[in-house]
Structure formats: structure tokens, C-alpha cells
Amino acid sequence: MRTPIAYFLVVSAALFAIGTVGVLVRRNALVIFMSIELQLNAVNLALVAFSRMHGDLTGQVLTFFSMVVAAAEVVVGLAIIVNVNRRRRTADVDDLNLLKW
Amino acid sequence: MPLDNVVFWVFAPISIGTAIAMVFQRNAVHAALFLIVNFFTIAVLYLVLDAPFLFAVQIIVYAGAIMVLFLFVIMLVGVDREESLVERLHWQRPGAIVLGLGLIAEVVAAVRAGIGFATKAPPHFDQLANKGGNPAALSRVLFRDYFFPFEVTSVLLIVAAIAAMVLAHRRRGITLAEREAEAVGGVDGSRTEPLA
Amino acid sequence: MLKSIWIVPALPLAGFAINLFVGKKLGRWAGILASLLMVASFAVALGVLNDLLKLPAEQRLFVRHLYDWIGVGSFRAAADLRVDPLSMTMVMVVTGVGSLIHIYSIGYMHGDPRYGRFFAYLNLFCFFMLTLVLAQNFLFLYLGWEGVGLCSYLLIGFWHERPSAANAAKKAFIVTRIGDTFMLIGIVLVFLRLGSLDFSHVLVSPGALAGPVRPSGVYTIIALLLFAGAIGKSAQVPLHVWLPDAMEGPTPVSALIHAATMVTAGVYLVARTHVFFEISGVALVVVLVVGLVTAVYAATAAVGQDDIKRVLAYSTISQLGFMFFALGLKAYAAAIFLLVTHAFYKALMFLSAGSVMHGLEGEADLKKMGALRRAMPVTTAVFAIGALAISGVPPFAGFFSKDQILAAANQTGHEVAWLVALVAAFFSALYIARLIFLAFSGDDRTERHAHESPPVMTIPLGFLAVGATFGGLLGLSAVTGQLQTFLAPVLGEIPEPSAGLSEATLTAISVVVALAGILVGWFVYGSGKIDWMALRVRLASVQRFLAGGWYVDDVYAATIVAPGKAGSAFLAYVVDEGVVDGIVNAVGILFQWLARVTRRVQTGFVRTYALAFLLGAVALLVYVGFRL
User: Fold this and answer.
1) Does domain A5-92 have CATH number 3.30.2170.10?
2) pTM score, whole prediction
């Protein structure tokens, strides 16, 4: 492979930043959650890139675990969103402002 | 031009492009679909990085299971719910964009200071790390060195499943009126209006 | 028996304690108990006096050490009691007249809801007064001094539901405080310059002082400062304004405190410390002038008063002025003689006035009295005795004491002072004659049905009348009276006559002046030949001037009280409420503002919190990046 590893890291950083912007700018809870998934994937990419660079499979193992945990997290997170939607009839995050002063 | 270079230069921009597109979709379903494409591109990038097992797992788990779950919930919540463009928090968008760009800049600077933009991947990865093929090598590391975390994650998955069942459980036997009241005000007196 | 002198003040102190705690339960017995304790105190004092007289004249001094009160560094003040002729004279007056007044109060205060408390205060007062006169050092004396001031406040304001009474009590306390403060400075100076506060150590000529001291001219200052305290306590000009208002208190209080005992504390003080005044010379002149001025001023003011008790109040001020006049002439024994006789006849007159008011259900205005001699014969008789005594008509007590003082004035070269004193004597006779004739003779102007007072009140009056009649025997002749001889070891001899008229001439002149005053009083108020009510209307401005005490009170109100109130108002509202409270409130407001501003961080929107996270993370990364 002739691509410098740094390029993969730049892609990872870009995806991460885009995911962050998505979390901050969007109001729909599901789209926010999807942006979080994007962030997780960006990190996974970086991990695999480093694993390739160091010649050590630890990075790939970590990525594997990250995917498993992400799956579990999605399950629970979506259940919460379903619950909130059932109570408040909204998917808009701005409506959940009870902690305002 | 070497093949992996071409593959990279095709799929990396697609990846970034679909990510940006996902963020800007007003419809949640469209966003989900763009994300799926993004996952595919990332999977290909895994392949470029000599991680074929993860390539497969990415497609199966992420694109296949997680995004499907997402789509189910979007259906449940409301497919045609369009998010309005009006942003009430004035500094949110400019702040987010500036900080996002800052983040990228920092990582680029860190990478430049760290490994530099010229370092290529060391050769002979397949002979050393991926001996016997990537799944076999991965299993060697996974079931030997990281066996305990593996078992713990299995427990985690069970717990997650139970949690989902508990959280999403709908009480049987309450009337429609009670359900409506619950939705609006909370029968147990929980406040739904902000204090201000 | 000398050693038991401590019992004399201890008995009234016990009475105070008992009446304070269980007075309510004792009911009628509170007064009887208090009076019995005072009588017992008098009996013990008699025993001590008896023992004292057994000693030869030069050795009549006994110090009873109670306990070491204060000992700090080189400063020592012990709780010691001094038994000598002067202190025993005062003790007899306090316990004797005090007992009679206690008995009188049993009847006078009958039915008052705070009956027990009254006797507790009265006993406490006697305790402090006895401490004052028996003290062997300045600090112990000051303890008694302050204590009687406190009791005076409590008793003047006894009926504190009346705002006028509460104000009078405050006024008394504050005005005497002014004097007390100067006195305290004087006491401090005594210690600093003369080395000790003990009477046996400091009341000696400068050459005989023990210890390393440098008196040099400080005697004048000390004497004047102590005299300032006396001015306040004995109601001399200019600190006399509290005494007329102090008549708001019950009449027994006026009799005991503001006639016989507390106000005489100043006279006692100057007599006790006369050594300082003699060494100084200047101070003695000041005492003389103040006394004389006060005597004349108060006598004129008394002529214009309508309230029977206020006449007596100004009369007291005037008589105290006479006493200080005598002190200024170095006739210390004469001053004490007047003090004793004055105690009798002034207490007699106050209690009689109380009897009159009791019989008229509280009426005290002379304009609304008249022809009381028919309804209240006993009271009329004893009042008349007191009036003759104060006018200086022989053979009543007042004649001998006043005559002695006038003689001392004339015969030591103070001719002008003597003449002024004669004027004061004339007015003394005038105002008391006016009182007698307006109240007891003439037309009946009362609107109530008068009746005589019960025996529990009239019997003590009888005792006092006896004292007022025969008390003169104590100092029978001008120079070699028994009292003077008794006091001589302490107070020295009366100055020898050096010039002036003869004894007989002087006596005749003073009697003539007294009779002249009575005659004028009878002519205007008693004979019916002059319409005094019309005269009063014609001379209304003069009458108001005299009645207002030459408007001294109003002058004080304008020049001292009003600026003081303005100053207090400024400090209270501007400084305390404005600045101090303002600062405190400002701190609170500052935090409220701070909170109002900073709580806007809590928007309730998850997204702003997320933005904050990112901001922090990026900043941290930048920092770490720069560090590395």
C-alpha cells in the first residue's frame, strides 16, 4: 500500500469533525444519533490505520470491540428515544429543556 | 498508479461527501441512507488497510444491523417529520463550524508533528501480523490476549437487549385517555413545561 | 459592734433580693419586710455609732475590710468600709429617714400592681447609698454612685407606662451621666497622680503622700472633675434640669432619693475630699460660686411653679446650693449640718405633699387646691412645721443650719456672697409661704372631696416633724454644736470669725429676712387682699419665665438635644442604614446580579452544552499541542 498513513488520519479527522458538527447543529434526535455513529466510525478508521502502521493487530481488536459496544449503545439509545417520543410526542431535542434555570 | 492509491482517492472523497450530505438532510430517512453509503466507503477503506475481516463486520453489523434499526425507529417516530431550518440559538451554527474546522486543523497539525505526511505503511504486513489470514490472526489475538474483554462484551450485549425491552415496554391495560394524559402531562405529576 | 458595720448595707441588699424573686407572692408583706429590714439596719447602725462614740475623738476611725476586690499590677481596690464620724452621720440619715419612708410607702403604694418591685428597688437604692457613704476608696464609692443613679432611673420611671415618666428617667440618667463621666476621669487621675484610690492614703496633705508621685497642680483638676460629678448628682447649675422632671416618680421616691439622700451624695463627696479643694483653692471658689448661683436661681424659679412637687424640687436644688455654698466657705460641718436638717424637713414636706395628693386622688396643681386645712389637719400641721423649718424660723431645725452658713459667709469676709445668700433666703421663705397659703388656706378651689391620709402614712410624718422641730439641737450653737464637734476630726473646725457683724446681729438679720418672706407670701396669697390670680395673668410672661426654670431646659433642648438628635438621625439613617446596610445589601445584590448573569449558561438545551464541551475540548487540544 502506497498511500501515506497520514491521509487516512486526515480522512478520519474530517469525518469526526463532520460528525461533531452534525451533533451540534441538528435538532432531530435520530440524526444526532447518526452523527454520533459517524464519529465512532471515524475513530475506528483511525485505529485501523494505526494498526496497519505499527504492524500490530491490537488496533483491529479494539475496533472490533468498539463496533460491538456501538451496537449495544445504539440499541439502548434508540429505546430511550422511542420512550421520550412516546411521552412528549416530539423528536426535537430543543423541546427537552426542563433543566433551564 | 497503484491500485490502493486509486481506491483510496475514489472512496475517501465519497466518504467525506456522503458524511456532509448526511448532516445537511432535512429528512431523517435520507440522512440514514447517506450514512449507509458512508459506512460502505469506510468498509472499503478498511479493506485498503489490510483488514478484510473488519470490512465484512462493518458491512454486516453497521450497515446491516445498526442502520436497519435506525430506520425502524425513524419509521416509528415519524417518517415525514421535516426539521425546520430556523435556528433559535444564534451562535450554534457558526460556533459549530468554526470549532469543527479547528478540530481538523489541530489533528492535521498533530499528525504533521507526529508521523509526518510522508510515512507509508511498513511492508510485509501480511506475512507478519496477518499470518494465516486476517481472521485467523485476529482470533489468535482476540481469544488469547483479550479473552476477558470478549466475554464482558457478550454480557454487555445481553444487558443491552434487556435494557431495550425494559425501556420500550408499553403498559398494557391503560385506556387511551390515560395514555394521552401520560403523554401530555405525566400522571405521576412530572412536569413537562419548563420553569421559565 | 464596729466590725458588724457590713450588716448595715447587707440588710437592704437582702431585702432587694427577696423582693425581686418572691415579691409578688409576698403581697402586702413585701413592704413590711423591706421596712423591717431598714429599721433593723438603722438599729445596727445605732450600735456601731455607739461603739464609735466610745472611742476617743482622735481615734474615731475604723476600717472594715470585706475582701480584696481588684488587684491588677500596682492597682489595688478593696471592698472596704470606713467607719468615721462623717460616714456614720450619713448612715444615720440614710437608714433613719429611709426607714420612715419605707413605712410611709406601705400605705402610699398600696394597690400598685408592682408593689413588691417598688420595695425591691427602694431597698437596692438604700444598699447602694450606704455603700457610697461607707466606701473607703474611690472605686467603691463610684460603685455606689453609679448604683444610686441606676436606682434613681428605675424608680423615677417606675410607672413606665407613662411616657413622661419614662422620659424623665432617661433624662435623669443621661444628665447625671455627664457629671459621672468627668468624675470617673477625676478618679483615674487620683490613681495616676496620687498613687492610690484608698482614702487613708490620698486624703492627706501632699507632703504625706506615700509612694513615688508628682501631684504638682493636679489637685485643682481632680477637685474640679470630682465636683463635676457632684454637680450632676446634686442637681446644681448647669446639670440641674433633671430634678424637676424627676417628680414623675412616686412621692416616696422623691422624698428619699431626690431630697434626703441621693442628691446629697455630691455634698458628701466634696466634704469627704475637701483636702483636694483646700489645696487647690481655685476649686473651692468654684464650689462657692456654683452653690450660691444655684441657690438664688432655684429659689426664684420655685416661686413660679404650680405643681406642688416641682416647688419642692426647685427648693431642694436651692437648698443643695446652700450646702455647696457652705462647702465653698470651708464650713464643711455646717454644710453637713444643713444636709441632716434638710433631710428631715424636705422629706417631711415631700411626704406631706404626697399625703395631699393622696387625699386629692392625684391632684398636684396648686391652683386647684385651697382650704385643705379643714379636711386634712394633720397634714397641714406637719407641712407647716416643715415650712417654718425651711424658712429658717427659730427654733426649728432649718434656722440653726442656715444661720450657721450665713454667719460663716459674713464673718470670713465674703460680704457680697452673704448678701446674695440673704436674697436666696428671702425667696426660700416666699415660695414656701406661697405653697402653704395656696394649698391650705383661702378659698376651696378643689374639684374633689379631700380626705386625710391613713395612719401608716401620717405616723412617719410625725417622726419627721419631730426631727424637723428638734433637729436643730444637734448643732445648737454656731460654733460649738455637738454635730460639729463630732465631725471635727474628719472635717476640721469651722473657720473662725475674722470680720463682719456679730453673732446676734447676724441671727437677727436672718430671722427678719425669713419673716419678711413669709409676710409677703401671706399678703399676696393668704390674706385675700390681693387678687393673686389677676396678678398672675398681668405678670404672665414673668410667671412663665420662672415656671420654666428661666428657660434653661429650652436652651438645652435647642442647643444640645436638637443637634444631638440631628446627629443621631444622621448616623442612624445615613450612616447605618445607608452606608453600612448599603454595603451589606450591595454584597447581596452583587451576588444576585452575578447569579442572574451566570445562570443564563443553563439554557436547558443539550446542544449548547455540547457546544461548550467541544469548545473546551478544542481549547485543551490547542493548549496541549502548544505545550508539546
Assistant:
1) no
2) 0.70
